[in-house]
Amino acid sequence: MAEENIREFDVIVIGAGTVGENVADRVVRGGLTCAIVEAELVGGECSYWACIPSKALLRPGTALHTAQSVPGASDAVTKVLDPAPVLKYRDYFTNKWQDDGAVQWLVDTGIELIRGRARITGPREVQVDGKDGASYSLKAHHAVVVASGSTPLIPKIDGLRNVPYWTTRGATSVRHIPKRFIVLGGGVASVELAQAFARLGSSVSIVARGRLLSAFPEEAADLVAAGLRADGVDLHLGTDTTRVEHDPDHAFSVTLGDGTVLNSDQLLVATGRRPSLDNLGLENVGLDAEEGKPLRLTTDSSGLVEGAASDGTSGLWLYAAGDAAGSVFLTHQGKYEARATGDAIVARAKGTLHGTPKAWSALAKTADEYAIPSVVFTDPEVASVGPSLKQALQKGINASSVELPINVSGSQLHSENYQGWAQLVVDEDRKVVLGATFAGPGVAELLHGATIAIVGEVPLDRLWHAVPSFPTISEVWLRLLEKYGL
Fold first, then answer.
1. Domains of the chain from N-terminus onward
2. Keyword Oxidoreductase, does the record have it (predicted)?
């Protein structure tokens, strides 16, 4: 029998991805002891299989296409990418899937790393099956934090579970570029990876039940669709996948609802994600899934999980942040939640926070619900924050919108035949910006200004005095405000 080690910490964090790291950092900064439990690589999904490697695969193609779109530069650059240096560039950003640097950061920060699989056995109690063969019983004086990330949602398609498909992990860690590549799904990961592989030489098809990027305005999604088609991506939208097969020669065949059969050398399933809460022992503290549904946690603005069993002294001990909390699956948003959660744990431990103060809750609501920034790193990019006009109206807000093509000196200089689109959503009662969407090459850097305007509730007549530099794409702000009537 493996030796059992009993250890106590102020805080135990389950999951050493970017969210777990940020929670642990905040509690250690606040003077508490902290252990973080991780079964895989320290740094998590974003660092090794999602945000970072996918952008490293995308960026060379975007840079090349930008140069090809500028007279003068276009004569000096190659017409196609060589996959080998692109994959080497990706390997650099993932540190070749070695986490020694991240582990050293934990050591330097004073966070105890326990490698293994964690399971909650009771209030403030965690059992870890260590990768070293030992079993660890951990006790938290103040808090246990679930920061276990998310896992792919796999659709129920005939034959799919019997074939060696990729999820985003397989695509972002690819060693050889397939000649033919099929992507199931029309969301952010789907369009980003489809374009990356198309520019690396694959013949790519996307199959989606609806339109592309359904969470974004259709005008913006249409520009992305045009960009994909220009790269040779074949789009099959508004159609179901009815069957998937894989033959002995390692080829995939995908049958669509209209009877069309697509063939490829590799298949990517990128149809969404769900919180990774399986086998964490949450049922041991009264958190059970509804019959036939996956478990979902409900948290307040401090990350406190509702409904967790009390240890007899306080129910304020179980927290969740990031994808595991299930609100928004975005790294930057998860890190924001992690910082707030860590600060709340420290405050409660020191007796300076009781419940969730109304002021904190209101501010967190702004960041968590009303001003969530998101970027699609395709070429063209889509950058969006806040609700669309439709979403604002559904919430009962007296809202309007103003839209126009991005056609300013900055965009004309950026690239020849620049195509872009911009929208502001306005709260007509308060005369402030509620939401903003920009679509076009290089628009991601416009987004933080929009986020600040929304979070800061800057009045439109005050915003008009924020003069955009000439000649930049930011001039579109002036054009939007002028069209609005300022």
1. 4-43+99-151+275-369 (3.50.50.60), 160-271 (3.50.50.60), 380-484 (3.30.390.30)
2. yes
Instruction: For 141, list phi and psi in degrees, rounded to 5.
Output: -70, -35
User: Which amino acid is present at 286?
Assistant: G
187 is in an annotated binding site: yes
Q: Binding site annotation covers 191?
A: yes
Spatial separation of the C-alpha atoms in residues 86 and 102, rounded to whole Å: 23
pLDDT(3) > 70: no
Amino acid type, 444: A
Residue with tokens 């970017």: 18
Residues 6+ apart with CB under 8 A from 7: 35, 136, 137, 138, 139
Q: Would you say 403 and 423 are in contact if contact means Cβ atoms under 8 Å apart? A: yes
In a 13 Å sphere around the CA of 171, the CA atoms on its Cβ side amount to: 34
User: Residue 113 has which token pair?
Assistant: 């790393």
Helix (H, G, I), strand (E, B) or coil at 224: helix
**Residue 428 marked ligand-binding:** no
Closest C-alpha to 79, from 93, 89, 69: 69
Q: Which residues lie below 8 Å from residue 5, measured CB to CB, with a gap of 6+?
A: 134, 135, 136, 137
Question: Do the annotations mark residue 186 as ligand-binding?
Answer: yes
The predicted-structure confidence for 119-129, as pLDDT tens digits, reads as follows 999 999 999 99
Is the bond preceding residue 468 a cis peptide, omega within 30 degrees? no
Residue 404 CB coordination number (10 Å) = 16
How far, in whole angstroms, is CA 113 from its chain's centroid?
25
Q: How many CB atoms lie within 10 A of CB 153?
A: 14
Q: For residues 42 and 103, is the Cβ–Cβ distance under 8 A?
A: yes
Query: 455: buried, middle or exposed (CB in 10 Å: 19+, 13-18, 0-12)?
Result: middle
With 50 as the cut, is the pLDDT of residue 430 above it? Answer: yes
pLDDT over 80 (residue 66): yes
- For the question of whether the overall pTM of this predicted structure is more than 0.90, the answer is yes
Mean pLDDT of 50-63: 97
Annotated binding residue 272: yes
Query: Mean pLDDT throughout 395-408?
Result: 97
| Residue 255 in this model has a pLDDT that exceeds 90 | yes
185 among annotated binding-site residues:
yes
Q: Which residue has the higher pLDDT, 248 or 131?
A: 131
pLDDT exceeds cutoff 50 at 98: yes
pLDDT tens per residue, range 20-49:
999 999 999 999 999 999 999 999 999 999
- Is 323 a known ligand-binding residue? yes
